[in-house]
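Protein folding task:
====================
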Amino acid sequence: MDKYRNYDISFSGLKQGKHEFEFCVDQRFFDLFEAEEEFENAKIDSKVLLEKHSTFLDFVISVSGTVDLTCDISNEKFQYPINNEIKFLVKFGEEYDDSNEEIITIPHHYSEFNIAQFIYEAVVLAIPMKKVSPAALENEEFQDLLDKFSPKINEEKADNEDIDPRWEALNKLRK
């Protein structure tokens, strides 16, 4: 965990109430996780709002910035805006437990909490599964390819299916 030390928030000396922390994360931050990323050239500002209570800590992590993605259609690089927010509680207990993603339990003797993983998740969850550049959306040739290979929704098929006579009688009452 030493490589994530810069993202520790020491809460033991803080008074009860709201506290704000800011972190600037770039591609070096994401390289710490040694995962194969789908983006490059990250420039992200992260604001962490910590509200300290006597028995728990309330975290709100907001990330905003840009990353460079590769378009799935045209294979060209484009800049994608990142805006996301993650909220979770940290409560004190006997042992560390992160099985619930919204409530994390840490031992009573802990005096700091590391938020690197949460910043990472906030950014990664803001990236779409299907990465299409704005240029590809404006290009008619690419738009035709998208239309051709996108799944078709058949609403007519649902209307034409044989309906059980009992349901048909109920549908008439609804109309």
